[in-house]
Design goal:
alpha+beta, three-stranded antiparallel beta sheet, rod-shaped
Length: 100
């Protein structure tokens, strides 16, 4: 394979990867905890977009449980975002194990 063709392919892969990263950054991932009492929405770039808390989840006697549900929902939504990002980038790279 000639070097010029390889360079063009590498540049195309780079453009495709950048486009995929931008696409993923705009995606939303939603997860809930506590049977739906807490819901978190995380963007594909792992920024927290929103948290919704069912008023019934607010128990002044057990704030720790509410905090745990929030952490669980945010972590699950972030995991979904990371999984989607890794899957998308792996499909672009044709199974090559390259760091993103």
């Amino acid at each position: 394979m000639d070097m010029k063709k390889m360079m063009k392919q590498a540049q195309k892969m780079q453009r495709d990867a950048a486009a995929a990263q931008e696409e993923i950054a705009q995606m939303e991932f939603t997860a809930s905890a506590g049977g739906g009492m807490v819901e978190a929405v995380v963007m594909g770039d792992n920024t927290l977009k929103s948290v919704k808390i069912d008023p019934d989840a607010v128990d002044p006697e057990d704030v720790e449980m509410l905090e745990d549900m929030i952490v669980a929902a945010v972590n699950e939504a972030a995991r979904q975002a990371a999984d989607a990002s890794n899957a998308r980038m792996s499909s672009l790279m044709g199974g090559m194990n390259l760091p993103f």
